[in-house]
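Backbone-to-sequence.
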């Protein structure tokens, strides 16, 4: 007799505990060219999310997740024009976003690369 096992898949995001860090602050070095006291966090969402993906520490991740929510961060990720391969795959996995849904992935696929034969 054959035993059938049903596995339930559950992906846990690395920063699932972000709500326990409501006072997390954004490191001013990520946006060194801006005065953080005057930054409009709503209109600068994509810039801030991209900088945190590329160079952020856990506190920076907690800040953007508390500031924009998971859906806000996801929509910013989808709209980003550029991410390197490592960062693109990391956020794709952590936020369960298909690579093909990301603007940076489509842009990378559409560029021709030289010397590939």
């Amino acid at each position: 007799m054959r035993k059938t096992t049903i596995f339930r898949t559950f992906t846990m995001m690395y920063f699932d505990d972000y709500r326990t860090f409501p006072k997390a602050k954004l490191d001013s070095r990520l946006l060194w060219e801006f005065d953080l006291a005057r930054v409009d966090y709503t209109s600068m969402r994509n810039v801030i999310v991209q900088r945190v993906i590329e160079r952020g520490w856990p506190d920076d991740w907690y800040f953007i997740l508390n500031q924009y929510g998971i859906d806000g961060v996801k929509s910013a990720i989808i709209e980003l024009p550029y991410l390197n391969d490592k960062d693109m795959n990391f956020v794709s996995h952590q936020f369960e976003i298909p690579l093909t849904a990301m603007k940076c992935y489509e842009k990378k696929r559409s560029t021709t690369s030289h010397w590939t034969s």
